[in-house]
Each structure stands twice: as structure tokens, then as C-alpha cells.
Amino acid sequence: MRAIAVLLLVACTWLGPGPVVSAECLPPRARVATVVGLALCIDPSFEAAIGAQVEKVRGEIGPQREAGKLILYLSTPVGAQKGGRERIDLEVAKAVKTRLERELGDRVWVLNPHQYPLSPLEGRTPGPDEHMLLWTYVLAGRDGLGRDLDMAYFTGPSDVRAYFGCGRRDLLGCLARWITARMASDEAFREEVEGSPGAEAALLRYYGAGGSSAQSKIGHDEWNIFSRINRRRPLEEQIGMFFDGRALSPAEIETSVWPGYELR
User: Which domain, by its residues, includes 180?
Assistant: First the structure.
């Protein structure tokens, strides 16, 4: 009962009145609204590429559905966020996908969004807003009800610890030993760490604090998309959500969190 009360308090705090920070979207970037109610500020030159990639992903979901598989969307943060490393995060996402498909069996297909990156275009590199728009289209579907998906998994701290081979004891010591071993076997990684003052401490800080979707702006927006979908769907058809290996409660799967890249 106490846990439920805390969750209700969080929900009321979010849904209740409070200051709203409005973000600007200035030219040449443009505000794009989506069917699920999330708006983003993107470079319009990527719109065609985003549309093509959305159709590519849907084209891969279709055969999986026809084969009788459930579709599980995997949210794992990737990028140099407060000390993280993109290459490491991509390896974490791959490891979590492999584990989930092994644990859940061959009747599920885990959709790892990092397998479908947007390519640079005419010297411009797509940013998180462009990628977020791509996946908003995929997650929401054509009518905002997320009909292409059955489940969503948000990578948590224990998933990240498992990748590093660390348990609950001496986590930071375990991470430090992993960094040392990786530097000895990976020349590029060693140069990254040694060439940037404070890089090792930043790695320990970021991954020691979890390195999970809870610390990701995109992860927050993805969560909010699913919570909006669930509030629109009939109760018996809501999308199941998981965080850090745990199935989430009814209050959690319908509650929004602080937005990431979404324009407010």
C-alpha cells in the first residue's frame, strides 16, 4: 500500500499544476507534431530519410508478426551522455537484446532501434531530435495506438551491470577493473580515456550511477509515448512495459515522466 501511495503521489505531482518551460524551435529547424501529441524540433532536410527509415523498420516488423512473434521494443541510451561511450552503449543494447530473446524464447522479436541509424546527409549529421522523430513514428504507429508493438523494455542499472560482469558488491571497483582490462585490449578505447582528462572518473560516475534509460532524454520521451498509448488503448490491450527486468505496475505504465527532447 505504501508503494502505491508513493506512485500516486508522483503521478499527482506530475499531473498537477507547475511551471512549464517552453522551448523555441528556430529556423532553419522546424517544429513537427506527431499523432501521439509529441512535437520535436528537427532539420527538415532529414524528413524524407526519416520517412524511408520508418518504412524500413515497419517492413521488418511485418514478417516477424506474420511468423507469429510478439514485438518488444528495447530502449537503451546510446551516446556520450555525462561520461558514457557510444561504442559501449551499443554493446550493452546488443547484449540486452540477445538476453531477452534467449529468456523469452523464439516467439518474441526484440526491436533494437540502434540497428537502424540515420545516415549523414550533405554534410549534416542527424541529431537526437531527428532520431526521436523517427522512433516516435514507429512507436506511435499511423493512428497513435502503437499497433505494431506488444511490449517495451527499458534498460536498467542491473542490465548494465550484467554487461560489465559486475554484481551488487564493489560495483565501482568492478567497473574500474573492466576499464583497465578494456584499455589493455582496445587501443582506440585506451586512447579515448588517456586523451581526455577525467574520462575514467566520468565513466565510473556514469555507469556506476546506472547508465540506464532513466538517465536518457530519448528514454524519457520513449516512456512518455508508451504511457500516452496506454492511456488511449482499452485496458486489456495496453502495452506491457518493463524496466530493469521488472514488469511495471498499472500506475507506472500510464504515468508520464519529465520530457527529454519533446517541445513543451
Answer: 165-210
